[in-house]
Amino acid sequence: MDINAALKAFVRTVERGSITAAARDLGISQPAVTKHIRNLETRLNARLLERSPKNVRVTAQGAELYESCRHALASIDAALEGVRLDGGAVEGALRIHAPVCIGEKHVHGIVMDFLDAHPKTNVELLLENRQVDLIHENFDIAIRFGRIEGQDVIARRIGWLQRILVASPEFLDANPSVDAPEQLCDVALVATKNVLEKRNELQLVGDASETVNVNVTPLLTTNSAQVLLKSLLSGRGIGTIQTNQIIDEIRDGRLVRVLPNYALKPIAASFTYPSTKFMRPVVRAFTDFAITRLRGIPGISAEPTCASDAPYARRAPAAEIVAST
């Protein structure tokens, strides 16, 4: 019996709660996982898992074995990969989870560059707007926004995502000017659902760190950064958006900042890792590669900044534009 393979099959089955899912993660057949576990139970003369048609449940003896061997297995894998890394090659598989907005806009390109730099690696990149269980869903890395909670997660801060108010020049030309936060309640607003507080309340932070809460009636709320961006570009309203999502649109004047002395509270972005796994060299290599790239993106800052420090001011008043031409 291959004790290492049997223990890996057992540990993954416990973490996934399913022999089928464990087989998929390990890249072997379901009967092979079942055989490994049965051989392990025979060798130990102990029942490790209770099986039912729907799931498996670890026994008391199985739970004790799981806690004893999971760190050891991860340490062995990391040591073996470390030896290969010392030979000059970063290699192995990575499973990465990220929010759709930053994943589509930035992480995908970073992953492709990493694959070009390290041809012996392969990556599964899953983009979703939800928080995943790193252990049970078998992710090596996840990018999370906001406060990181839970003892099973280790976090490394990427930076702070700046979020500002913008609109198209066409919308601003066709509608009354917005010079104070309170006026947002009278204009069309498009936003992602997570920026609105209870009862459609928008919270803004000013240069003096004062907080202003504005009751708004959004024209459109969405969970898609692309839908939000397209709505803003088509002149549907003023919108709240991460600055890193609109670098080109601001630069070429298709979007203009509104209320430049106010911004939404910056949100932290972090790489997170399961604390029960040793960080394999390929995971560390990708993190070091990606974090430098992400920190260089306009709108992602090392520290939370005040409103006027966030990139891009609004366009100059008409009188200034005429005077400069």
CATH topology descriptor of the largest domain = D-Maltodextrin-Binding Protein, domain 2
CATH architecture of the largest domain: 3-Layer(aba) Sandwich
Number of helices: 10
Largest sheet entry: 13 strands, mixed
Which bin fits the share of residues in helices? Answer: 25-40%
Structural class designation? alpha+beta
CATH class of the largest domain: Alpha Beta
Helix and strand topology:
Layout: H1 3-16, H2 19-26, H3 30-44, E1 49-51, E2 56-58, H4 60-86, E3 92-98, H5 100-117, E4 121-127, E5 141-145, E6 153-167, H6 169-174, E7 189-192, E8 196-197, E9 201-206, E10 211-215, E11 220-222, H7 225-233, E12 238-242, H8 247-251, E13 256-258, E14 262-274, H9 281-295, E15 300-301, H10 318-324
Helix pairs in contact: 1-2, 1-3, 1-4, 2-3, 5-9
